[in-house]
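PROTOCOL LOG
Step 1. Enter all chains and additional molecules of the complex.
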Amino acid sequence: RKEVEQDPGPFNVPEGATVAFNCTYSNSASQSFFWYRQDCRKEPKLLMSVYSSGNEDGRFTAQLNRASQYISLLIRDSKLSDSATYLCVVNDFRGGGGADGLTFGKGTHLIIQP
Amino acid sequence: DAGITQSPRHKVTETGTPVTLRCHQTENHRYMYWYRQDPGHGLRLIHYSYGVKDTDKGEVSDGYSVSRSKTEDFLLTLESATSSQTSVYFCATSNQDSEQYFGPGTRLTVT
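Step 2. Run joint prediction.
Step 3. Record the structure below.
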């Protein structure tokens, strides 16, 4: 069974600080990776894809370590509005018409404190 | 955003009654999905569709059926609702077997 594991938190972080959390995945054949953000009682929204070389989008940096099978998300200069649950998502891409390859972690709850 | 709407947004129903949830998208995405989200379980795939009239089961399909007669609509039916089906239901779409975009969700309570 495919597994995606995340520390559920909560991570309580003061505004302006840098916070990082990881996610580990069990299937070494996994092919693509994402971070989603979910606000309380709302739908998940795509935050960023995670590329092998690592990628950055403003204050957010995502890294992939295939050898150790983990993905990380770094948030710099955290804002109150960053408070949310962050979901790690792994795609095994079965192809051939099968589109059920996404596995979601249960999420890491982040609270930015003023 | 992929222009995804879900209806109804909230529903309370009694055990044993049939319930149909609708997902509508305006982006002409090929793939559509139904998930449920429960505390302690995260998002779990119920059924998905990879084209009109092409559907398949996900991880937690028992007690649910789906239909997709048009590209834009994906229906989820609970033939006889049970209390264990109380949950938040999300529809999602994608144009490839890759990142997915979610609708606003339906909160279903089965009493």
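Step 4. Note key features.
The CA atoms of residues 60 and 84 of chain B lie 12 Å apart.
The interface with chain A takes residues 31, 33, 40-43, 45, 48, 50, 54, 56, 58-59, 90, 94, 97-105 of chain B (CB under 8 Å).
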